[in-house]
Amino acid sequence: MMRFDGQNPDEIALRLAHIAWEAGRVLRGMESALIDKRIKDDGTPTTDADLAAEQLIIRRLNEAWDGVPVVAEETSSTAQTADYFFLVDPLDGTGDFIHGTGEYSVNIALIRGDRPMAAVVAAPAMGSIWIAGETARVSPLPDGQGTDFAWREAKVRPAPEKDLVALVSRRHGDVATEACLSVLSIGTRRMTSSALKFCLIASGEADIYVRCGPTMEWDTAAGDHILTCAGGSVVGPGGAPLTYGHEDRGYLNGPFAAIGDTALAPRLDLPVSAAVA
């Protein structure tokens, strides 16, 4: 098995960027096709596009890092982890892909122990990509056959005294989330889907995203790392960082808040989920 000790996390992130860009091209090519939607056991939709992107990503990860486990939403969601492993969501925001909003992403994170060390979130239809190893960067996606990125640093903004911008899920509102947001001075609620919420906060375009409903580790790991490297944080109840590789609970996350300004964390009161306690 190829080990990552001594490898530069930023260089790993760049390699992941090329894989996500390639997967994004597959998804873009399937956007206008007749969508064969199926409902999985957990009630969420999947399509042939999810499967095609996941197969490509797993193949490319195996070519680059043979033997490193890949936990991926569609075909290897019960894979076992090791000291290093990948978390992959090949199409985060399948509902948005089906409905043509463009707000979907490709998420890949390399986990070392229980925290990410390199990650990418690509938004193929929106033309943007974010990566992080030790630093967080953002670039437009290359046009056509080119693979030249134009990276610049992604950085969170200080939280304003009032009129915070909160990102809320288009399809996943809940009472507990609203209760958490009610203690803050929210001026704008902006509907955004998928892991793009982490990235918009990382780029200084918003301040907070709270999610109290269920999510999976492959939904959050890449965005978590990008936001953290951009100066923000993703915290669970009590303010602790999220951890990854919880095979015992089926890779389920508990409630969390993604925040740009870490000074907001003590003001939050996230509920404790019995499922992950």
UniProtKB/TrEMBL annotation:
| PANTHER family assigned | 3'(2'),5'-BISPHOSPHATE NUCLEOTIDASE 1
Q: Does the keyword Membrane apply?
A: yes
Instruction: Look up the record and name the cofactor or cofactors this protein needs.
Output: Mg(2+)
Role noted for this protein: Converts adenosine-3',5'-bisphosphate (PAP) to AMP.
Task: From the Swiss-Prot or TrEMBL record, give the protein name.
Answer: 3'(2'),5'-bisphosphate nucleotidase CysQ
The EC category is: hydrolase
Q: Which residues bind Mg(2+) 2?
A: 89, 92, 219
Superkingdom of the organism of origin: Bacteria
Its annotated compartments are:
Cell inner membrane
Q: Which UniProt keywords apply?
A: Cell inner membrane, Cell membrane, Hydrolase, Magnesium, Membrane, Metal-binding
Tell me the residue numbers annotated for binding Mg(2+) 1. 73, 89, 91
